[in-house]
Amino acid sequence: ADEQHLSTRREESSDAKQGALADEPHESLLEKSPGVKVTSSKCRNVTTRGNSTREPTLTCSECSYETTTKRDLVCHLQTHQRDTKFNCSVCSFKTVRKSNMIRHARTHDGIKPFECSVCSYKTAVKYNLVLHIRTHTGDKPFECAECNYKAASKSNLALHMRTHTGDKPFECVECDYKAAHKVSLILHMRNHSGEKPFECAACNYKAAQKSHFVRHMRTHGGFL
């Protein structure tokens, strides 16, 4: 019995060492990768359902990829580190996948092979058509686990979740303003730059935001 107990302890010790060694390469690569930042996505002032808690989120700063495991992030980072095989002859776009290059090339030649059977909408990307069709069907397959919000696309659900987590990844370089959405930061930056791209054709009024411009146009009786 004593020999069996000692054998079991040795196996447990060996498994623990192997687990620690397996984690070391991933920890090392994460520390050496400049394109990685760790952000906490724990809910603040939000009532969670059940006893579920959110894990810290690992985010790739090269793209919008997010995961809760370091192993998955390491695998994802390799897609940025690979030598690109396909280069666009028109612009600086590069990719490791031929399918991505074919899809990108359509942005230059204007080919839009995917057409909506309900309206005149056309797109170069098949998935964009899938999302568009949902505007006709009303299908919203992505549901929020915190409230009754539903979205037609995964990206829209991800944006919505920031209202629960309080995550504001877009930061102003001029002040301490932070935004949950990129478009909000773009609008804010116009406060610093003074840019007002919306100009009234009836007078010399200019606006930084389209909503302000529309409100102004009503003073002209809706003249456009």
From TrEMBL:
Keyword Iron applies: no
Domain of life: Eukaryota
A Pfam family it matches: zf-H2C2_5
Keywords from the named record: Metal-binding, Nucleus, Repeat, Zinc, Zinc-finger
Keyword Zinc: yes
Composition skew (Polar residues), residue ranges: 38-51
Name of the featured protein: C2H2-type domain-containing protein
Organism of origin: Hirondellea gigas
